[in-house]
Design brief:
Chain lengths: ~325, ~325
DNA sequence: ACAAAACTTGCAATCGGTTGCAAGGGTACC
DNA sequence: GGTACCCTTGCAACCGATTGCAAGTTTTGT
């Protein structure tokens, strides 16, 4: 049914090798043969079967893209960037939606069955061991948004979450907040714990502070909202570091339900700087994470791994910065 | 490097056929052989190469998922549902991000190179001819969220956008709005035009109405916001049907910037009923589109196409209903 | 004009599986 | 015990491509 190498060869009156060679870069074909083949291919509407050729070349150009953050709008941006960056380089994203799974075994098996050239684990919640499982199974892997480390076991691209926690704490202190709280993502998320750690490091030396913390069920609007509602039933802090913009936006929503003004009654600083945070109705003060660079860099790294599979694991950590908007009071 | 059929066969002391057969459902293998093979496979960590087998079976279980709506948060929900629904059936989503392209040629070629079993065009903006191009190239295709038709050229699953336009108009009329407007998506989107048509059909017989319409640049927050800002500079209508929730939310944002209260000063009804529309701070009255059923049904249809490729094109149109929240005044 | 060097081309093996076919082995039945 | 039938197994061809090798052709240099 579909047209193959052989058909083109027959029509062009050349061998199959000749056809193959005109379609592979840098192979030795005369101009005459090439044009005969191209004409025949054109006529038949031939395009080479990438999977068949992967059998001999060992390259599929398929890249597994594994994630579990399908309820955080930031992830649409992430998806957009990743799929485009991969496409631009002639790579094809094969998606794995991890929603209810936390074990790598199934994903690893599946991606190996499809002979992906590499895998990208795009998640700030999964532990390094998750990405490591791909590495151990012989699948080159980059963990994007993964836990930063000075000597990582696999390639990691992202930010230093501990430092972001410190940064958020410093920002609250610089604005004179005395009852400060961390409202983090789920306890089993590495990013939630790292941000927590940084936050605590920074505040624990100040004896005049009242410090609290809690964790939402997941990185979602609903979870942030629910957690802040719960806090408001007791005695809330006056300045919060919410571990993520979508949590922040959920928290903001529960503030206004209770007639509280963000930035005035209660301060909130988020993390990510997603598109929505810029909306006038949200106007969230937050820590900017350079998503686009992180993703471009991740895909660069994937390409380099393909060239040199023995490449030594590397951590690429990008700096973040505070974006001042309307949900914290002014600096003192 | 990777372990193959041959290795397992050697270790188990059987032929390659025997190994192949133990891994294919319904093949004839004795219990004894099977267990020998399974033991050997276990020991070597073997799992069959899906791409190699696709060569002979003609099935890859890869499904192309093509879309262009990477700036509308609804699409994260769509993505989540699609990837899960496909996975549950053992199918693998191969993503095509169409962002700047409107011609199917490249996507078609690429998906044929990867021998996808079928393609899903998930877009309410692309014309039927786009999906048709896949069909014509021999790739079974379902157009999800596509233009409904009584005799479609390819499988279509979605809603009747014309009827939704009517429904929105009726809703505005039932609430006594007299200066009604349609604020649609981009003019080149089929859904924007269909909703426009339905809206107009319904209002044109009422001589006491003042009717206006305009189109945003795309389905995004920014576009909706910009368009409403522009409208507010002139004499806006008092009741709008915004062609999509994200447009509505953009429009709402520009209303509150101008000190206008949605539902009181200006009414807005959206379409989609995405998660965000339920947020208390948004509380958008909108037309609910049954995304989940649409997607499940699309994937069902994909499976049935795989079973019977000659299956006659079918349109599966799902009913929508108005969800009353806070952005329209009460019914008279 | 001739030899050497460089380039083209087709053959055939190979990638990792699947499958039709025929042979072999076992069981059931009379 | 002999025949008929069914199940299991391996052989070998094939899926659609790539590639090392050797033979054939062209180009280059003198």
């Amino acid at each position: 049914m579909s047209v193959t190498l052989k058909d083109v060869a027959a029509l062009a009156g050349v061998s199959r090798s000749a056809v193959s060679r005109t379609f592979t870069e840098g192979a030795s074909v005369s101009a005459k043969t090439r044009s005969k083949v191209e004409k025949a291919a054109q006529e038949l509407g031939y395009s080479p079967n990438a999977l068949a050729s992967s059998l001999t070349t060992g390259r599929t150009k398929l890249i597994g893209l594994i994630s579990n953050n399908f309820h955080n709008p930031i992830f649409l941006e992430v998806f957009d960037q990743f799929t485009r960056a991969l496409q631009e380089r002639g790579l094809r994203p094969l998606i794995v939606n991890l929603t209810d799974e936390t074990e790598p075994a199934n994903s690893v098996r599946m991606l190996r069955q499809y002979s992906v050239d590499a895998a990208i684990v795009a998640s700030s919640t999964l532990p390094p061991s998750f990405a490591k499982a791909f590495h151990d199974a012989g699948v080159p892997v980059v963990h994007t948004f993964g836990r930063s480390a000075t000597s990582p076991e696999v390639h990691v691209v992202g930010i230093d979450n501990v430092e972001c926690g410190r940064m958020a704490a410093r920002e609250l202190l610089a604005r004179g907040y005395k009852r400060v709280g961390y409202l983090g993502g789920p306890k089993n998320a590495t990013s939630a714990m790292d941000r927590y750690r940084g936050f605590m490091e920074e505040v624990e030396n100040h004896s005049d502070l009242e410090v609290s913390h809690s964790f939402a069920d997941n990185y979602s609007f609903e979870a942030g909202r629910a957690e802040m509602l719960r806090l408001l039933k007791g005695t809330p802090a006056d300045g919060y570091f919410c571990g993520d913009d979508i949590l922040s936006i959920g928290a903001l929503s529960s503030l206004s339900d209770n007639g509280l003004k963000p930035g005035k009654d209660i301060g909130i600083i988020g993390l990510n700087d997603m598109e929505m945070s810029r909306w006038e109705s949200v106007n969230l003060t937050t820590i900017h994470q350079p998503i686009k660079q992180i993703i471009t860099s991740s895909v660069d790294l994937v390409e380099e791994m393909l060239k040199d599979p023995t490449r030594y694991p590397e951590a690429r950590i990008f700096p973040c910065r505070v974006i001042e908007r309307g949900t914290l009071r002014p600096r003192l």
